[in-house]
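General statements about sequence and structure are easier to judge against a single worked case. In the encoding step, the backbone of a single protein was reduced to a row of integers, each denoting a local shape. The record that follows shows the chain in one-letter code together with its fold in token form.
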Amino acid sequence: MPQEAAKHPLVDLVRQSPPFDVGHVPNDAWMKDKVILITGGASGFGAGFMKRWATAGAVIIAADINVKNGEQLVREVKKATGNPNLHFVHCDVTDWHSQVNLFREAVKLSPHGGIDTVVANAGISQGKRPFEEPIELDIANPPPPDTAVLDVNLTGVVYTTHLALWYLPRNPGSSPASPKSKPSETHRDRHLMLLASVAGLMPIPAAPLYGASKHAVVGLYRSLRSSSFMHGVRVSMLCPYFIDTPMADTSVRVAMAGGTLGEVEDVVEAATRFAADPCVVGRAVVVGPKLKVKQDEAREWRLVEGKDQDAEQRAIWEIYPHDFEDSDVFQRRLVSLMNRVTEIRGWAGWAQDMVAAVLYGLHSLWR
């Protein structure tokens, strides 16, 4: 890592951890007594997270718009794990004040008065009306498009993120996140986990708003991980493939016929590797179905059929591992080109630009 940091200063500057070890087995025990807030916590991934982390002894505040499912889940997991520190709070993530109330309630429910991890998990796959099938645009007052997907998947995530960036740095007993953290000496956390999707990495036919919302979450993550170190917050992101959850409705299952869906347990495993290791900073993964694969001589992954002792089962794949290395290369090339332009233009070019800048300012005052 020191050589990598010297070669690519941005990696060291933004405190990004080394490439993610997909074979690493998380230490669930580290999550004991950590306070974790999960939006969309009543079903799907959120329910999977609660079950796994409650077993480890974490304090869970699950939030969802579905009160019946949320309260029932908490009762069931309490009974199954014997963990009494599980709570449900009603929340509509599209409502700012509802989310403000959620975070305030979470702090009240927290034994130490703070939040260690925020998981922005709430999401929907589609609204009531297809975006690509406009209706009644020829009447006097045509209806606007149904933007519920954007409201939940983007606005809701933005609200959650904004609140997390306030509460996480104020987590009592926590220290700024760092890839140099020692888990044995790190007792509190400042972790924001974003749930995006492969729809944020590639086009998904007939789901333009869902794709737009998930592309936005990916952009949010890539930007935040370059600046969240200023707040001492570590950011991670999961991009699940098509997973066997209630969001995979009949149309999805028909489209995937002959292929394969991923399993919730693998998404939970990937999330736990992030949540249970304070040294993982600014990393993201795709989670798909388990595949039997091996690398060829060109280090390209190939699907393996039949028996092969060198093959491995993988469902978790790191993405955007070299953003900052690539940024460094681009910046060096760009700065080199700009410096050359300055050399060519010389002092005459500098003087010309200074006069133009002054005239621009005076012109602005006269308007």
